[in-house]
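Long-time lurker. I teach an intro course on protein structure, and each term I like to show students one example going from raw sequence to a predicted 3D structure in token notation. This year I'd like something fresh instead of my usual example. Would anyone be willing to generate the tokens for the chain below so I can use it in lecture? Attribution to the forum is fine with me.
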Amino acid sequence: MIDMEDTKLDFQTHTFHHVPDSPGGSDNQLIDENPSSKSFWSFDYYKQFFDVDTDQVKNRIIWGMIPRPGVNYVHSCIKPNPDLYGPFWICVTLVFTIAVSGNVANYLQYAPTGEYKWKYDFHIISFAATAIFLYAFMVPLALWSFIKWNNKSQSSFQEHLSFLELLCVYGYSLGIYVPVAILWVIQISWFQWILVLLGAALSGFVLLTAVSPAVEGPKKILVLMIVIGLHFLLAVGFMLYFFHVPFYNYKMFSYMNNFQKMNWPPVFG
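-- Reply from a regular --
Happy to contribute to a lecture. Here you go:
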């Protein structure tokens, strides 16, 4: 038998000088912000990046194109569960929207003249896919790399953006160009340019509110200017390459067709 009266319980106080890693994981990880035992080569590893419901995707799309002053898009919509589901399907949808709308715009540009035999341009799909997916992946990667390198020399780490969060932000920021691409079919030059400015400004402001707190140091203004500049260049590139044809092209095709109708050069018999 154990004599409870003779048993002494010693209580010790331990002081922890190291705080265990939070569920968010280490800042040194590129994509996996929730370390687990899942293998990098397994399907379940990537499944976690697509674990998002319809309401979350809808809210992220809406607030990715409608800026809210004083509200950080990452904190309000992305954290703590960034996803790749929305960005992937937004990019795919934008590719096919630009391909279809671009061909419709091309048809509307030349069909009224009756002098140009129009045909569907399948190369638009590959061009649009290359531009969109390169922008949605390479720009966040370059920005994430710069933030990691730049903030190492700074004294504070108040804000951290993972690569996955940047991919998520940039992917959803492209959502505004889906309806804009449809409206670009309207062949009114000033209207097309208004859509460029409006679409790039709205989603660009959301990008700035998301990226700005994570960039520190004297190069912050330059980085933010590059971020918004690339976003505007993407919109301008979409409109000029896929939807806009200068007026002199109409005259060129008209002149060439009229020249052919003259059966030139003449045949003397």
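Some talking points for your students: The chain has one domain: 54-247. The CA atoms of residues 167 and 239 lie 24 Å apart.
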